[in-house]
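Service request form, structural biology core

Requester: graduate student, group of Dr. S.
Request type: structure prediction, single chain
Budget code: on file
Notes: please return the result as structure tokens.

Sequence provided:
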Amino acid sequence: MAEAIELAREGVALAHPNPRVGAVIVNDGEIVGQGFHAYDRRDHAEIVALNMAGPKARDATLYVNLEPCCHTGRTGPCTKAIIGAGVKRVFVAMKDPNPRVAGRGLAQLKRAGIEVYVQDEYKKYTRETNEGFAKWIRTKRPFVTLKTALTLDGQIAARSGSVTWITGKASREEVQRMRHESDALLTGIGTVLADNPRMTDRTGDPRRRPLLRVIVDSKLRLPVKSEIVKSAQNDVLVFTKQSADSAKARALRNAGVEIVQVRSRGAHVVLRAVLRQLGRREILSVILEAGSELNGAMLEANLVDKMVLFYAPRIMGGGVAMARIPSPGFRRAPALFNLSFRQYGPDFAVQGYFHDVYRNH
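Core staff response, request fulfilled:
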């Protein structure tokens, strides 16, 4: 199962919009077939492994990190192929969060006389690997991870509108890995005006679709000569309350930027409407890298599923806090659960969740 989970991770940025799945087939103590799912290659991980195993799949054991599908989509049901190949037993790490499957695949295998086992001890690894898929398949909205870098006294910048490097090289490399695992990067116009960033995935690792760079820009202040616009290749999307037919919108479109007018409330766009729009585009996961205003608005609207806070061992002694929450703030302080800690060079990261996107699974 550990090998199957590692194979599933090979599908990062390649399996979208399907879940990341790895499969291993063992016969008489020998691995006879294995594979992972990549969307453009069509076949699910189980089929890749069965094709490799050939006749050796008969009476073999299949290990797969996610319950095999039992419905017809772009391909036929994996359960039918597993049964037809004569597999004797199947181990899975967890049931599929897709309501069209959700235990039905395992039930179908059992009815065919196949021994089925759920290895709960591996569930947490598969959950994290597919949390974006789980959120999207259940709600049609993307899973949102708020990432930020802070000093020990909780500051993200020396002053509003300034650029402040806080964390070290190891932390920044981890952030690039997080970007690579995400379908979209979301920020606010304030961050673009202050930092003039490109907001790209610089890992160099293969991905099926380019990282979608998304900007919340209510007043459409995005400069046509900014780095993100100059580097646009139909991978920059701006949500605004301004008309998509304005002269500024036309200039940005001519530069390769897509402009979408969304519902607004007062001076700001409705962030839930932004996420719904991204969900319609099959964006499963979003990494939020923004300033205190957008961070605060997303938290206040209860739209953040996960937080990853990178702390540097330094004190700023005044500056800009991670999130600006308008008075009177939260009615109750939301608590993170499933906390974990990891060190990156001299820095350390705290990770936790606000929502369990696998409810009842």
